[in-house]
């Protein structure tokens, strides 16, 4: 055990409510972060004493804004935040952890296997590079990946029509949303709000920026790209104008 791992506090009472049946796995995940996560440089040693409040619980409460049985892509998952706490709290979700760095995807794959997370898969890549290679999802999540405007450019095109991006942000949420409004419109967003979640679980509450897209997530360019891809995948017409079987 590392020196840092010895600093991991006992789980707070609220962790039981947040993780329910998967509480023991949440404890195991906290231990993995505090030990291998710190040793491999995926999380700072100074985070260990506040792993529960600031990381596991802060992320798990994102589930309050996510519908049942939907698909989720966690962009820039890092050591699994918010994707892993979300998967533990919500076994009904199908979660893809998207992360470009090999060192991090290796850790994520180990965690998924150790915790038996059947609702999670790990994909190595950058959001802007996997566009069109992954099926569109209902929800994109992210925390600490990029300013909202840039993140929206990566995340919104991954959504299906009427999908939603739910981003954990800190004190800068309002400011970032204001700065991103015009870009969000160009990217196909039809609504953007800020909500607080985690009443009774985390203090201070977690701030979530919710961005909903319309018919054409990713804006005009993405819609054109999708239409082209759909045309290309259609079977060619024969001389009589009827489709070949
Ligand atoms: C500061 S870390 C945050 C990790 C985690 N979300 C958290 O809250 O602890 C940012 C992560 O985003 C990833 N990242 C950066 N650019 C990305 C992109 N274009 N697509 C997907 N992930 C990206 C990085 O590799 C890194 O793991």
Please give a structural write-up.
The chain has 245 residues and is α/β, with parallel strands linked by helices. The protein has nine helices and seven strands. Mean pLDDT is 91; it is low at 239-245. The longest helix has 17 residues, at 23-39. A seven-stranded mixed beta sheet has the order 3-2-1-4-5-7-6, sandwiched between helices. It is globular, with a radius of gyration of 19 Å. The chain has one domain: Vaccinia Virus protein VP39 (Rossmann fold), CATH 3.40.50.150. The chain has helices at 14-19, 23-39, 51-60, 83-89, 102-115, 127-130, 148-155, 173-186, 219-233, and strands at 71-75, 94-99, 120-124, 137-143, 159-169, 189-197, 206-213. It binds S-adenosylmethionine. Residues 75-79, 81, 98-101, 104, 126-128, 143-145, 154 line the site of S-adenosylmethionine.
Strand order of the largest sheet: 3-2-1-4-5-7-6
By DSSP (H or I, 4+ residues per run), the number of helices equals 9
List segments where confidence is low: pLDDT < 50 over at least 5 consecutive residues.
239-245
Beta-strand content: 15-25%
The percent of residues in helical segments reads 25-40%
Shape: globular
**CATH-assigned homologous superfamily:** Vaccinia Virus protein VP39
What is the count of structural domains? 1
| Beta strands, count | 7
- In the CATH hierarchy, the third-tier topology is known as Rossmann fold
Major sheet: size, sense and barrel closure? 7 strands, mixed
Radius of gyration: 19 Å
Report the CATH C-level class.
Answer: Alpha Beta
Distance between the termini: 62 Å
Secondary-structure element order, as H and E? HHHEHEHEHEHEHEEH
The overall pLDDT, averaged over residues, is 91
Tell me what the CATH architecture is: 3-Layer(aba) Sandwich
Secondary structure class reads alpha/beta
Ligands bound, unique:
S-adenosylmethionine
GO molecular function: methyltransferase activity
Organism: Actinacidiphila acidipaludis
Binding site for S-adenosyl-L-methionine: 76, 81, 127-128, 143
Protein name: Ribosomal RNA small subunit methyltransferase G
